[in-house]
């Protein structure tokens, strides 16, 4: 136990555990408060209780009687106090109570103890083997026949941070008591200590008003609410975020053959439909988040630095005016570009689904600058990874280009909610011009396969081209070639990689959503820049999943993509999968009934049955208001 910590022990029987703690660490400076539910006279009937109580008091501890651990906030003697650790050893409802009553005891204890728990405090609960219902139990009980300790703690917004053996051997004076509410001991062999800590709070989904320079014009628009948690992840050069570590790993691997000149200037989130369609390697338009502008200023109105580079406003506390604009903003509803009339509307914009259009312009502009640059002059603002000097031929390149251009940033995809479908992720794009005879695609693929095959990545070919594949997520990248250039003697080759999925592979993350977590327990594990292959240690163990069905009638204007957007917004990112399980079209009415099964699961926040159901009810309200469906 660390020094100078305040510890509250509840549900004590003969006080032997509290006494042992005081004896083991008499010089630690820890403050121990031991409590029990019984009256003092009843507690003293336990064998050895009187001596243990005296030992606690002699060491400077406090003993309190008639303290109900399910109502700690109401205890007058604990008013105004907070504890670094709250301990409940072998809780039991009493006598021959079943699992339901003991679950209720645990839930009420957790809800009570957070009222006296320090912000960074821990809750320790010891249970006999099998009672907790987690995979740490050997053997593991069926979930319905266990006390479901992690699910009960989630009701109080606590996550299971660690499970370790209950070390009764280190407490020589500890003696169990209370078997079936009697002064009898019980077996604690293979018992487990469960450690809980507070979960980060859920952040409300809200639209974010943006302002940036797009193709010479300053535009104002809203980022849809379901993407508000995914818009602002900027990877500085000194960042130790695992996505940045994955990018550095790739660039350092390529540097041995080709130095990489990375663009450092921020790129606008918006791109025009016209620009997107001009790029033959962009993504399917059906996956685009189409945006209507709130305001646009012509280029002549843009002054100062705003005309030089995009200006993006980070999210802030919205004013009343912002809320009023957001409430009626049409930018909340992604719209399919197939129905758009570019001439009539003066241009249609989308949140960038890929960086390919920007990368092609970057490559052309840098080559133009490089052609006219004098020796020693810098070529644009870039960050070149260590390797051969720019412009020099590198050994083993087989006559290929000596320099790759690169860019990375968050891209957005309007995709159905499923386990490995990411609505936003960091894309890394690399491109270079190579002589045709050097077989550049094979060169790039060989380099990627050498770097990534130890992590389960393989090369696959299909109708869409060459893909980097990994299980269980599927495609994590692709390699493609543009039209031949320079009199058909050279070809432009590009590689697009999903850095989020790559980070999941490199660091054995259980869920890509962790990469958007602001929990310090996540970022702390990467503070020392661990090498790829270092396994992430979850700070939320064995999170429970919950399934709910939702069924509703729709009209002829039904759009499934808007349903998935509503699921992400209402579920605050906790919906892992939304699967259509049934449809029915009414023979007389122009209505169709859809039934979806939603799976709620979170590795980043405490998710209880109560919280999941609350999100599900919010989804019903949102669907009714926004999509005009009739909940069945």
Tell me the span between the first and last alpha carbons. Answer: 54 Å
What's the alpha carbon Rg, rounded to whole Å? 30 Å
Largest sheet, if any? Answer: 8 strands, mixed
Structural class: alpha+beta
Strand order of the largest sheet: 15-10-16-17-21-20-19-18
Q: How many beta-strand runs?
A: 25
Low-confidence stretches: 302-346, 372-400
Record the SSE blueprint.
Elements: E1 6-10, H1 16-24, E2 31-35, H2 40-43, H3 49-58, E3 62-64, E4 83-89, H4 99-113, E5 117-127, H5 149-154, E6 158-165, E7 192-198, E8 208-214, E9 217-223, H6 242-255, E10 260-263, E11 270-272, H7 273-277, E12 289-291, E13 295-297, H8 320-327, H9 342-345, E14 349-351, H10 356-372, E15 382-384, E16 404-412, E17 424-435, H11 440-452, E18 458-462, E19 465-470, E20 474-485, E21 490-498, H12 499-506, H13 520-523, E22 546-554, H14 560-571, E23 575-585, E24 592-600, H15 609-626, E25 630-631
Helix pairs in contact: 1-3, 6-12, 14-15
């Amino acid at each position: 136990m660390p020094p100078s910590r305040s510890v509250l022990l509840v549900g004590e029987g003969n006080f032997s555990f509290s006494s042992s703690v005081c004896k083991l660490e008499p010089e630690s400076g820890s403050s121990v408060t031991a409590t029990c539910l019984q009256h003092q006279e009843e507690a003293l009937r336990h064998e050895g209780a009187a001596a243990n109580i005296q030992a606690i008091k002699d060491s400077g501890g406090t003993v309190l009687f008639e303290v109900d651990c399910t109502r700690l906030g109401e205890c007058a003697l604990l008013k105004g106090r907070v504890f670094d650790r709250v301990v409940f050893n072998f809780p039991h409802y009493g006598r021959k109570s079943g699992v339901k009553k003991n679950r209720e005891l645990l839930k009420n204890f957790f809800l009570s103890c957070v009222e006296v728990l320090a912000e960074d405090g821990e809750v320790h609960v010891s249970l006999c083997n099998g009672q907790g219902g987690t995979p740490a139990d050997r053997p593991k009980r069926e979930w319905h026949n266990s006390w479901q300790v992690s699910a009960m703690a989630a009701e109080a917004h606590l996550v299971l941070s660690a499970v370790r053996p209950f070390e009764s051997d280190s407490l020589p004076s500890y003696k169990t008591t209370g078997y079936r509410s009697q002064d009898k001991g019980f077996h604690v062999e293979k018992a487990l200590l469960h450690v809980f800590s507070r979960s980060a709070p859920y952040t409300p989904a809200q639209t974010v008003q943006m302002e940036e320079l797009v193709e010479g014009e300053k535009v104002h628009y809203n980022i849809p609410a379901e993407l508000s948690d995914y818009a602002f992840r900027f990877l500085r050069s000194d960042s130790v975020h695992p996505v940045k570590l994955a990018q550095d790993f790739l660039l350092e691997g390529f540097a041995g053959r080709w130095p990489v000149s990375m663009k450092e200037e921020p790129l606008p989130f918006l791109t025009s439909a016209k620009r997107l369609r001009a790029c033959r390697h962009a993504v399917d338009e059906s996956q685009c988040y189409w945006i209507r502008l709130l305001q646009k200023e012509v280029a002549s109105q843009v002054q100062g630095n705003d005309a030089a580079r995009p200006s993006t406003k980070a999210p802030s506390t919205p004013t009343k005016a912002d809320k009023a604009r957001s409430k009626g903003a049409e930018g909340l509803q992604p719209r399919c570009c197939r129905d758009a009339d570019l001439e009539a509307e003066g241009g249609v914009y989308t949140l960038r689904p890929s960086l390919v259009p920007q990368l092609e312009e970057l490559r052309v502009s840098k080559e133009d600058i490089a052609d006219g640059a004098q020796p020693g002059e810098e070529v644009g603002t870039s960050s070149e990874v260590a390797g051969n000097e720019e412009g020099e031929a590198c050994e083993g390149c087989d006559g290929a280009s000596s320099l790759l251009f690169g860019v990375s940033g968050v891209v957005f995809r309007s995709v159905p909610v499923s386990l490995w479908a990411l609505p936003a992720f960091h894309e890394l794009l690399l491109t270079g011009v190579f002589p045709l005879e050097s077989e550049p695609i094979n060169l790039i693929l060989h380099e990627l396969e050498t770097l990534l095959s130890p992590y389960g990545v393989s090369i696959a070919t299909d109708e869409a081209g060459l893909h980097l594949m990994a299980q269980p997520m599927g495609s994590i990248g692709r390699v493609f070639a543009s039209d031949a250039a320079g009199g058909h003697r050279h070809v432009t080759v590009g590689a697009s990689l999903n850095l989020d999925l790559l980070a999941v592979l490199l660091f054995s993350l259980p869920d890509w959503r962790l990469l958007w977590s602001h929990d310090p327990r996540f970022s702390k594990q990467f503070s020392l820049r661990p090498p790829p292959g270092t396994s992430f240690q979850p700070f939320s163990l064995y999170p429970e999943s919950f399934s709910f069905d939702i069924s509703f009638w729709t009209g002829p204007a039904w759009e499934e993509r808007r349903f998935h957007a509503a699921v992400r917004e209402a579920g605050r990112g906790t919906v892992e999968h939304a699967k259509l399980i049934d449809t029915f079209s009414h023979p007389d009415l122009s209505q169709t009934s859809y039934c979806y099964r939603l799976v709620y699961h979170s590795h980043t926040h405490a998710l209880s049955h109560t919280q999941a159901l609350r999100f599900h009810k919010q989804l019903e309200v949102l669907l009714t208001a926004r999509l005009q469906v009739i909940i069945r």
